[in-house]
Amino acid sequence: MNYYNVHDATINVLGDFPCAGQETKQFTLVKDDFNIITHSELYGKRCVLYSFLSVDMPVCAESVREFNRLAYRMKDIEVVCISVDTPFTLNRFCQREGLDYITTASCFSSSEFSLDFGVKIDNPMFSGFTARAVLCLNEHGLITHSQIIKDINHPPDYDSVISALCPAID
């Protein structure tokens, strides 16, 4: 079980958060255009799965913008930003912000996603929300990097994400 710091309080995050070296689990999510995206659609691509609470939270919104910038710079990387926000909300946010290089997806109708990926927040105030976490996957669905952001006020470690996606050649 992981923990999450929210305004000086520690809350539990349920499920087993995946580690580097593991295969990604199966999932089905609803994209902001109401089409479905599954784990199998990502095979053959290097990608980032970014779980976050809501685009209505400033740190989350900024991190989604930053992942869009990252996807723009690294055109061969698929970035999927995942929250419990409805597809309507995610679509409106992306249109307003001009975010064209990422895929946003909702787990609002896939309650097993948050537990399967170890990001289910266990707190009545944040019930249903997912913790902020990043998984980098290689072309075979193998996790090459994982980070769960322990504090609600901190962004992901983008440098670690970039290093995992573009390892140095010796």
Automatic annotation (TrEMBL):
- UniProt cross-references to InterPro entries, sorted A to Z: Redoxin, Thioredoxin-like_sf, Thioredoxin_domain, Tpx_Peroxidase_subfamily
Listed GO molecular functions? peroxidase activity
The enzyme's first-digit EC class, named in words, is: oxidoreductase
Name the source's superkingdom. Bacteria
List, alphabetically, the PROSITE patterns matched: THIOREDOXIN_2
Q: Which residues form the Thioredoxin domain?
A: 18-170
Give the protein's recorded name.
Thiol peroxidase
Native organism is Photobacterium alginatilyticum
